[in-house]
């Protein structure tokens, strides 16, 4: 189900109503027909922030880390996914 979408003008006129709606589902605010902002509850924002992951580059790994990764093997059950394509 797509979230609620309103123009910035509608949002300004009905802030209270859209603030209440954002407690239940994200509200997308558009500007000149394009998505501009998303209003969501603080609880949902915190949930998403907890899911953030740190991206590491190859330079962040030690040689021991790289050797350990190279020595790993996928579990036999993972072969079921060999035919999947992007």
From TrEMBL:
Protein name according to UniProt: Antitoxin
Free-text function comment from the UniProt entry: Antitoxin component of a type II toxin-antitoxin (TA) system.
Domain of life according to the entry: Bacteria
Family: Belongs to the phD/YefM antitoxin family.
NCBIfam families tied to this protein: phd_fam (TIGR01552)
């Amino acid at each position: 189900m797509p979230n609620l979408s309103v123009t910035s003008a509608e949002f300004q006129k009905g802030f209270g109503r859209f603030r209440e709606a954002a407690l239940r589902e994200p509200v997308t605010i558009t500007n000149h027909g394009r998505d501009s902002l998303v209003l969501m509850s603080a609880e949902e924002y915190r949930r998403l922030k907890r899911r953030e992951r740190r991206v590491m580059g190859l330079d962040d790994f030690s040689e021991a880390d790289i050797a350990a990764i190279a020595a790993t093997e996928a579990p036999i059950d993972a072969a079921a996914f060999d035919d999947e394509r992007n």
